[in-house]
Amino acid sequence: MGQWANVLLLAAILCSYAGSLQASQDKRMAAGTDVAQSEVPYQASFRLIEQDRHLGSGAILNVRFIITQASFIWKLMRTYPGQPLSELARIRLGQVELKSKIDDRFYTIYSHTYHPEFDFEAARNDVALVRTREYIDFNRFVQPIELLSGPIPEGSLVSYTDWGAEKDTAAQDDYKEKLQKLDARAISNDQCKELLSPWDLQDLVYDTRVCVYTNGTGSICTGNVGGPLVMIADGRAQLVGVMSYVYRACNSLVPGGFERLWNHHEWIAEESSVNYSDTNFGEMCRVVRNVAAQILMQNKETVRRRRAIRAAKVNSEA
């Protein structure tokens, strides 16, 4: 929250200065549960422009960047050779329904950047950044997510969200109508390799992977790509990884593999920085005010929950 406070303070100063000048963004999941949009305001859906079909997911990093799976963008570009990404897909934010509505907000893709050491064949360093042409308009249902800067403890509870079907081979009509959430535990890479050894897949667990395991309660099936893996720390959602590799689709006793984003924190921070030299400060100030209002509301909600927990504990001890 300290980083956001500094950003907001700087933006507020810039807003004030600007005001004075003017005066003078195929694998899915089984056994997931429906998600409310207020739970995942960072979720992004990449949509095929011509058919408005969901292609893959991502997460909002800031007012200009969405983070997703590099393999997803790479395969999409090769499925439609000769066409720029901006003419193939657009980004929808602020919704949990699979099908878009007439008043949904879409953003044009300006550019995309693969990790410099991305290897499609090996699915290594499988992360990409997608820049929007317009500033993302934050509100209650559209918010950036904080990027986790360090490793998570083994056994941490994590959640993965995406739209999904409950069978191995699925068409778009088989996908769930609402965004799905799958809860799991993060496991060590050694445990992940052990669980994958019966299928001789242990060599596919790289040091940039974080494995998650449900122990039979759910699995990733057909069509999930690029979706965010999130953990809650200090009452805030923090981005741990993006969907990268399904070792055995639709098998709830096999772990799933995500790109470990804390390994790429420096690259992500550098590549997703926003250049404000040509900024429309009137538009930016409106965005900043929305962000500030949402953070204030989230802080108040966090305080309310902590007070409720303390009150419940006191009552139980009385």
Automatic annotation (TrEMBL):
- Peptidase S1 domain: from which residue to which, for each copy? 29-273
Q: What SUPFAM superfamilies does UniProt report for this protein, alphabetically? A: Trypsin-like serine proteases (SSF50494)
Record's keyword annotation contains Disulfide bond? yes
**Secretion signal span:** 1-23
The source's domain of life comes to Eukaryota
Q: Would I find Signal among this entry's keywords?
A: yes
The record, for PANTHER family, names:
TRYPTASE-RELATED
Put simply, this protein is called Peptidase S1 domain-containing protein
Q: Which species is listed as the source? A: Anopheles quadriannulatus
